[in-house]
Amino acid sequence: MVQELVVVAVAAASAGAVYVAMAAKIVKQYERGIVLRLGRLRNEVRGPGFTMVVPGIDRLRKVNMQIVTMPVPAQDGITRDNVTVRVDAVIYFKVVDPASAIVQVEDYRFAVSQMAQTSLRSIIGKSDLDDLLSNREKLNQGLELMIDSPAVGWGVQIDRVEIKDVSLPETMKRSMARQAEADRERRARVINADAELQASKKLAEAAAEMSAQPAALQLRLLQTVVAVAAEKNSTLVLPFPVELLRFLERAQQPAPAQQEVRSGPSQQPPQKSSPPQQQPQEQQPSPAPPSSGPARVMRPKPLARH
Questions:
Q1: Cα 199 to Cα 211: distance, rounded to the nearest angstrom
Q2: Helix or strand run (H / E) with residue 112
Q3: How far apart (Å, rounded) are the C-alpha atoms in residues 188 and 217?
Q4: Residue 149: which of 103, 111, 121 has the closest Cα?
Q5: What are phi and psi of 178, to 5 degrees?
Q6: How far is it, in rounded angstroms, from Cα 168 to Cα 176?
Q7: Around 160, how many Cα atoms within 13 Å sit in the side-chain half-sphere?
Q8: What is the DSSP secondary-structure string of 117-157?
Q9: Is the pLDDT of residue 153 over 70?
Q10: Max alpha carbon distance in the chain (Å)?
Q11: Cβ distance 100 to 154 under 8 Å?
Q12: What is the pLDDT, as a whole number, of residue 89?
């Protein structure tokens, strides 16, 4: 009789231990427990720690409440300005309602992933290439709103969506490189022209100052010679100012007033005047004197013979 009681006690203890082992559940700090009793959702959400369920009747589902980092596969699309691109992104989300995450959707992770892919394709088609490259913050906000709208009914909250990389074709990369190079060259030329303009203004001011003080020009010349000689060159280039040549030219030519005082009036010896050459004139017949009577004919006298 005693042995039978001992056997029954041992069997009961063993059954109790098995029951406790099957009923005892541990929920971690970052998890929440959802109990389905005979397939029906219990309103009570089990918090972290030790909890008990009815074996065979209750089923405990644990839901992770941590922020999940999910990469979105790269999607090929055509932008609004007809450029083929390949864009990938990353999404951060967490479960805020464990009961809805279990009941409302079969697999909330897969649902969020598919929604992110379709939303990313839609964003690519609505955006220009420049927006994808430079205005990503606005695109991230639009993508977050597109994913968060259906995810609210799944008990999931979208924390952040980031576009990671935008892959372009090689031809487009070369075209953009040429465009960037041309823009850099344009800016360099503009800066160089601006520098030349400022330098010319400063040089004009310096020339005006040096023209008032000629000694300053000579000092500047000596400074230039010192700067050239400091390079330890075998050939020394000495700039010769044009103003010095003009100064020497003016020094060699005496003033007009001093030249008149020094030389006085010039006395030249008288030159012998040559008799004027008389050109032979043709003898013209003298007009006959007027007479009242008949004209008399003058005959030449014969020459006398000796």
A1: 18
A2: helix 108-126
A3: 33
A4: 111
A5: -65, -40
A6: 10
A7: 8
A8: HHHHHHHHHHS-HHHHHH-HHHHHHHHHHHHHHHHGGGTEE
A9: yes
A10: 229
A11: yes
A12: 92
pLDDT, tens only, 32-90: 998 988 888 888 888 888 888 888 888 888 999 999 999 999 988 888 888 889 999 99
Q: Single out the residue of 81, 85, 152, 155 nearest to residue 120, CA to CA.
A: 85
> Which pair of structure tokens corresponds to residue 113?
């992933």
Rounded to the nearest 10 degrees, what angle do helices 214-229 and 170-212 cross at?
Answer: 130
Tokens of 70: 């999910």
Q: What is the dihedral of CA 39, 43, 48, 51, to 10 degrees?
A: -60
**Distance between CA atoms of 204 and 191, rounded to whole angstroms?**
20
Distance between CA atoms of residues 138 and 128, nearest Å: 12
- Reference 72, options 87, 88, 85, 86; nearest CA is 88
For the whole prediction, is pTM greater than 0.70?
A: no
DSSP for residue 114: H
Q: Is the pLDDT of residue 184 over 50?
A: yes
Report the distance separating Cα 306 and Cα 304, nearest Å: 6
For residue 223, what is the enclosing H or E element? helix 214-229
The β-bridge partners of 90 are 71, 162
User: 175, 58, 44, 27: which is closest to 99 by C-alpha?
Assistant: 44
- Identify which of 149, 143, 152, 102 has the alpha carbon closest to the alpha carbon of residue 124: 143
